[in-house]
């Protein structure tokens, strides 16, 4: 996208995809993402399980009305940040970090010479 292009409006199919996402997932929250150097402003939907989907959106107010119509919470990602549960691969929560005991055991075992 060029610096001076207007954000594109979501197509009807994009909004229907987000509506389906809300219908098929529990605990969905919406996050308005402002434009950055690499991405147009967008509307991000994050489910309780960490799954997420997004589409570009032309106006913040339109996104807020859309979320109000769906009955889901609407946040500004630039203010509140992103929920931890969406980190990791799309559709899956991020794996748990190893515990201190697991790391100690791994370091104590030394290099794997079977390779």
Mind explaining what this structure looks like?
- By secondary structure, this protein is an alpha+beta fold.
- The chain has a single domain, classed as name from scop (3-Layer(aba) Sandwich), CATH 3.40.1690.
- It contains 4 helices and 4 strands.
- A 4-stranded mixed β-sheet has the order 3-2-1-4.
- The longest helix is centred in the first third of the chain and has 13 residues.
The CATH architecture classification is 3-Layer(aba) Sandwich
Number of helices in the DSSP assignment: 4
In spatial order, strands of the major sheet run 3-2-1-4
At the first level of CATH, what is the class? Alpha Beta
Order of helices and strands: HEEEHEHH
Total E-strand runs: 4
The stretches of 5 or more residues where confidence is low (pLDDT under 50) are none
Mean pLDDT: 82
Summing up helix and strand content along with how strands pair, one would put the structural category as alpha+beta
Describe, in short, the structure shown.
By secondary structure, this protein is α+β, with helices and mostly antiparallel strands. The protein has helices at 12-24, 60-70, 77-80, 100-109, and strands spanning 29-33, 42-46, 52-56, 74-76.
